[in-house]
Amino acid sequence: MPSETSADIAARVAHAREMQEARFKDNPNIFNNAQMPSRMVREVCQISQAGLMLVKAISSNQCNVLRRRLYYSP
Fold first, then answer.
1. Residue 59 CA from chain centroid, whole number
2. Against a cut of 0.70, is the pTM above it?
3. Could you read off the pLDDT of 12-62 as tens digits, one per residue?
4. How many CA atoms within 13 Å lie on the side-chain side of 59?
């Protein structure tokens, strides 16, 4: 993966901030994603079926096996 320049990163961050500003324009007390209530997260962040399966796997005991396998892989 090619490394990003500082200008590339700054542009990406600026774009993300613009998206958040637009998303929260009707919510004067919310300024970033971390402040979103769970209801808003469910509305804004729609997870695909594959993503949902990944989240469930990570939150179950399967994750412990996967983490050990990844950590100890040669």
1. 16
2. no
3. 999 999 999 998 999 989 988 889 998 888 888 888 999 888 878 777 766
4. 6
Place of tokens 């989240």: 55
Report yes or no: 13 and 4 within 8 Å, Cβ to Cβ.
Answer: no
CB 35 within 8 A of CB 44: no
HEC assignment per residue over the chain: CCCCCHHHHHHHHHHHHHHHHHHCCCCCCCCCHHHCCHHHHHHHCCCCHHHHHHHHHHCCCHHHHHHHHHHHCC
Domain ranges of the chain: 1-36, 48-74
Residue labelled with tokens 């500082």 = 6
In the block, residue with structure tokens 């007390």: 29
